[in-house]
Design goal:
- A 3-stranded antiparallel sheet has the order 2-1-4. Strands 3-5-6 form a 3-stranded antiparallel sheet.
- The protein is mainly alpha-helical.
- The chain contains 16 helices and 6 strands.
- Helix 6 runs parallel beside helix 8.
- The chain folds into 2 domains: 189 residues, Vanadium-containing Chloroperoxidase, domain 1 (Up-down Bundle); 229 residues, Orthogonal Bundle (Vanadium-containing Chloroperoxidase, domain 2).
Amino acid sequence: MISAMPSLNGSIRLTHQQLPHITVRLFYKSKPISRRELGQIRKDHTRKMTKIVAALSLLCACLTAQGNSSTRAFTDETNQNTPNSEDRALNPVVQWNRTLLVIVRTPGAQSPTIHPTRSFAMMHAAIYDAVNSIDRTHKPYLVQIAHVSRSASEAAAADAAAHDVLVALYPAFQATLDAQLEQLLAEIPEGVRKDQGTRAGELVAEAILEARLSDGSGAQPTPFIFGSLPGDFQSTPPNFPKPQFTEWSRVTPFTLEAANQFRPGPPPELTSDTYAEAFNEVKSLGIENSTAATTDQALTGRFWNGAIQNYWNEIAQTAALANELSISQSARLFALLNLAFADDVIAFYDAKYTYNLWRPVTAIRAADTDNNPDTAPDPNWLPQVGKTTPDPAYPGAHAVISASGAFLLRSFFATDRFNFRVTSEVMPGVDRSFTSFSAAQQEATLSRIFAGVHFRTDLTAGKELGVDIAAFVAGHFLQPNDRHERSDRNR
């Protein structure tokens, strides 16, 4: 007997003749559910597909070269930024992670109202559930395909799952994604093993897409009304942008029970000594052309001034390749990271728009209104990086995501020690070296002071929030089926 997820138009994709002996079991937050229960989770919702004009030939070249994988281990003498066919065949999880990084870095590809961490979480959840349906060593995230041969191709499952999710999320890239899937599947021998893996990946991708249809990500941004009191978030000079992702805290989390599950307490009072210390630190070190910051501090502020989750995905790529992780191990690692990152963003936007704290550039220019005798205004102050991210200061996003990323990598590999280099997303060709995940976390976090866009107190709260979320994800999701049977570092 076959039970399967309905396709997006309500029909069943696969018949008994097409895919014998396969049953789909659904899970919600790692607990078994029925199709009827999943239907209650779904709401009528029209997905908002991103419409873009992309130079597909250029993207194909990017995907072939894979020049955007910019983190590497010290001990690897080969350039991991240019994987060969063996690399693709051995680790399709890394390959598809690189592909999605290319897409989200393509101008215009990502909808400005949909955070890209959602795409990474969906793709890697699908890869994980597809591969784990074959490997069966861990609990599923959402769906488990039963009665698939353990000899089915995990690579084919990963390829099909990733491809189908990305085509649904980025339809303008379908030609490129189709070509990549064809190339990757061509490296897998024909036969039942390949067919079962491919079809399992397709079913899992459909279930993931179906489950996220009504998650609230397509809602229009909530109009934001700026406050007028000291401490209230304001649009920031020099470009005075509109606030971003005002509605994102209402997106359904991937793992958390609610966006505010780990909401930090409020920022310090403007009249407090703690606030004055944080104010004066960023005022001195984070100003454009600062004379107080060292050359290295100023460079650090600029180096990390990109999409922080992209940096951590590349760090994970390097760690996966350096440690020669299997497909199933890689699938679990990237799923844990990106499920956490997606919920990090939902959670920190909940906190940001709850407290609505002004950014340093506003605070410093208006310091004569904060009633703190230890702060002094500078009406011409601008941050080291020029423009400030258009959302409230507290808590700091880099701190949240870096704390989650480092926590999960330390937990997964059972060590903090790892020698690697990271190349900046915004300063091509510039890289920095680290000997531990924690060292990269600390530098990425503190960089926001040197960039001039955060108070230290934003970062302290962000670090706590990131650790709380990562610990929750690691402790409740993608767990081994038998803790006593598995001895491979809980991968």
